[in-house]
TrEMBL record:
Belongs to the binding-protein-dependent transport system permease family. CysTW subfamily. Residues 83-309 form the ABC transmembrane type-1 domain. GO terms for biological process: phosphate ion transport. It comes from Nocardiopsis alba. Gene3D superfamilies: MetI-like. This is Phosphate transport system permease protein. Its main location: membrane. Part of the binding-protein-dependent transport system for phosphate; probably responsible for the translocation of the substrate across the membrane. Pfam families: BPD_transp_1 (PF00528). Keywords: Cell membrane, Membrane, Phosphate transport, Transmembrane, Transmembrane helix, Transport. GO terms for cellular component: plasma membrane. It is found in: Cell membrane.
Length: 321
């Protein structure tokens, strides 16, 4: 009695791809092209809408600090002070949030018990779900009044440092307060990215460090942090991109004013996104076009930050490989 083998599917001829592979590859390629088209479309829209005000502007758009764009005869406006405030606020937020986020991620992955780690991870992720207006209300009504005596003490004891020169704002609605609120807002992004990277460190690297007599901190310093460097930088840049474009929280905290000042304890700085939100309801004439021109600058800054993050991450992955 003979048995026959069940028929098997014949392999596709050499050089011929299956229909499913072709369709999937086409969809993936089309999605990538669609993203580029959308990005180019946004840039083109901003440029076209901003062009009339840029041509009619009687001052240097990149260097002027004033903003008088509603006049149809002689609009005069510049984005220098707004761009400065935007970058400074995001830098403050990044400097405050990154060390805390790395510490939280390390504690969740390597120090906390499993149940506590799961709870902390959930709570940190929950911060990302809080609306921006809630952060703004918290910063304006609770955080700022609590910081008034702190700022006065910083002015008294650290006033010799230019960043903390007095007199301190009596309302504490300054760029430093906005930076603290932004730091809390971007904390979940950096923490989540860092936590995922730390969890992907090869077990062999960690065990090899411990087998050579390293303590847990030495294992983290010698094996974990070098492996996750590119991921940390990428997460920090993504967080900075969020901080650059934040609108409502910053608009509710900062007093509307235009100036280029490194005095973090005084009022006087403003960001592009907050300025657009505050000025748009009253914009007339070339005012709307001028605000779109400011948005174009914000678009360029955010794009540059994200492209820099991608470059750093790609370079770090290449070095790790």
């Amino acid at each position: 009695m003979t048995t026959t083998d069940s028929p098997k599917a014949a392999p596709p001829p050499a050089g011929k791809r299956r229909i499913g592979d072709v369709v999937f590859a086409g969809l993936a390629r089309g999605s990538g092209i669609l993203i580029l088209l959308i990005l180019a479309g946004v840039a083109a829209f901003l440029l076209v809408q901003a062009w009339p005000s840029l041509m009619a502007n009687t001052s240097n758009f990149l260097t002027d600090q004033s903003w008088d764009a509603n006049s149809r005869e002689n609009p005069s406006f510049g984005v220098a002070a707004l761009a400065f405030g935007t970058v400074l606020a995001a830098t403050i937020a990044l400097a405050l949030a990154t060390p805390v986020a790395i510490g939280i991620a390390l504690f969740i992955v390597y120090y906390a018990p499993r149940r506590l780690a799961a709870t902390l991870g959930y709570l940190v992720d929950l911060l990302a779900a809080i609306p921006s207006v809630v952060y703004g209300l918290w910063g304006m009504m609770i955080l700022a009044p609590k910081l008034v005596p702190v700022y006065e003490g910083m002015t008294r004891y650290l006033g010799w440092i230019p960043l903390f020169a007095g007199p301190a704002s009596t309302s504490a609605r300054t760029l430093l307060t906005a930076g603290i609120v932004l730091a809390v807002m971007i904390l979940p992004i950096i923490t989540a990215m860092s936590r995922d990277v730390f969890q992907q460190v090869p077990q062999g690297h960690r065990e090899a460090a411990l087998a050579m007599g390293a303590t847990r901190w030495e294992m983290i310093r010698l094996a974990v942090l070098p492996f996750g460097k590119s991921g940390i930088v990428g997460g920090a840049m993504l967080g900075m991109g969020r901080a650059l474009g934040e609108t409502m929280a910053v608009a509710m905290i900062l007093s509307p004013s235009l100036a280029i000042s490194f005095d973090l304890l005084q009022s006087g700085n403003q960001t592009i996104a907050a300025h657009i939100a505050l000025q748009y309801p009253e914009a007339t004439g070339y005012g709307v076009s001028a605000l779109i021109a400011a948005g174009l600058v914000l678009f360029a800054i955010t794009l540059a930050v994200n492209m820099g993050a991608r470059y750093v991450v790609a370079r770090g992955n290449k070095e790790s490989a």
